[in-house]
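Re: [help] complex structure
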Amino acid sequence: MNEQPLLGVRHLTTEFVLSEGKVARALEDVSFDVLPGQTVGLVGESGCGKTTTLMSVMRLLPSNGRITSGEIRFNGKDLLTLSEREMRSYRWKEMAIVFQGAMNALNPVMKISDQIGEAILLHDVMDRDHAQKRVGELLEMVGIPRTRGDQYPHQYSGGMRQRAMIAMSLACSPSLLFADEPTTALDVMIQAQVLELLREIQKALGLAIVLVTHDLGVVAEVCDSVVVMYGGKVAEYGTADKIYNSAGHPYTQRLLASFPDVNRPTDTLVFIPGTPPRLTDLPRGCRFEPRCDVKLPKCAEIDPLLIEPDNQHYVACHLCKGREAHFV
Amino acid sequence: MNEQWSLFKRNLLDSWRTFSRNKLGLLGSFLILTALIAAVFAPALTPHQPTDVIRDEAGRGLTFAPPSVNPPLGTDDAGRDIWTELIYGARISLTVGFLAGFIAMFVGSLFGITAGYFGGWIDNLLMRTTDILLVIPDLPLMLVLVATLRQMDLHVSPLVVLILVIGLLYWTSTARLIRSQVLTIKERQFVARARAIGAGHGHIIRKHILPQIMPLIVANTVLVISTAILVESGLAFLGLGDPTQPSWGTMLNFAFDRNAVTNGAWWFYLPPGLAIVWVSLGCVLLGNVLEEMLNPRLSVHHLEGNENMVMLSSPQSEKK
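Output below.
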């Protein structure tokens, strides 16, 4: 990739210490880039490490989580070398996050406008009066009347709350926005509205977005590149075109196949048998091997490295031919 | 500025409406307010001093005189006016109760929030301290503490000793209550969001944790005040009050010491006893309604309260 990435995640490994001293390796050797103004999709089953990736990048892991190795470069600066105080000034000013389920991410006893203004005032971007005005503008940008800023979250509908969350995430004009399943728990019409809103905002402000989702349709529609994760590792990473048209990893292929096609109605849904591996008890070889139907004998023994079969396309599978991937 | 003032007025009016809707809360504040007024305006409510002896025309002290027009609540063994003693005693009882209650609340909230929010060894240390205080029976402990501190010649009023001992022993249940509430709140996602915004611990506690537990703290303060008044009465009854500044508990102590019961002088011990009930009951009732008032989720509904939104028929309009 020629352009200087806005965010470069390199070989990120994150572990959680569980009770009885057990260690769950939630992320292992995760690498990907986010270019300025680009949308990157992060897809995979529940528990495959999508949210953990975001939380690791923002350094907001719970107290039993720790990043054991890797680099997180933001505009060339490794975030993992920053002190907590320095890190605080990055949060929201440089990268903001729209949480999964806006209902819970809003403080129920604080007025919406105060919550949106909170970030602005925390970072001393502007004084109180200007912040007030900015909050009004932000609300209108996401289609909420200014006057309703005086209300509490429980007086908002689900879609409005999500839009208020988006307004909040834009408060300090970040250059990178994480959207953690921004459309779950919303009905289809509202989902479309929220995605459209995100897209408009991206166009208007030139934001880079990392979109975490289960919905491959959404990914195909809005993402420039896609990271497919499985069991805490990157299974496949490449441009949306490569992922959709020449998926190299059996997991990606099965995932795409299990998405029903409107043009070919069917009675039976395709699914992948089995469950993702337990993170405390990972298989020795490929993590997808127990559920893979095209596995080779060595798949159970050797964990495949990321192979680069094509430019800007990385696959972690023994079946894939190409040179070994090198991330710089 | 003007707009803010009108908003403030509207909020005040809203609060008053919620408050006045609750009859028990009104009763509670009536009970507390009357006691406070009696305490503050005591000199205006009686012609006597608490130490004055009421005398008949012949100049003899009226001992154990039953209630009549004057004295309204009778006199005690030394001929002092019970009504005067009662309202001056309110000053002592309420002062001790309020100050001790505030100290207990402050310590309890501080410990509860710190333990709950930071967790780990801090939590362990604070909560084990709380446990130790909880398992020691409070009455004997307080008796020993107050008696010892009095002996130590600290040159402070015995009331200060009482306030400090009660205040510094009665924060335990508050600390536990608040800690458990903080534990559930700090796991909520809006706290994670606040961290993501770039907020530090101080900001999160002030802006996100405290407002959530404020109703609990305020409601609990009122309840702890009532406990403090009861405990003070208990200690004073056992003779640990300040005899020169008699509280309601001290009055009860005098009454029993001077055989009011065997003399059938019910007007000596009933008024202070009822006064204690009066204030504690008021605190309990007020505590409940305050909690409801301060929690916006309990007072504003999804489709209520804004002119631009759907209007529901209010109870008032139904009556018309």
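The interface with chain B takes residues 58, 60, 63, 88-93, 96-97, 99, 101, 104-110, 118-119, 122-123, 145, 147, 151-152, 154-155 of chain A (CB under 8 Å).
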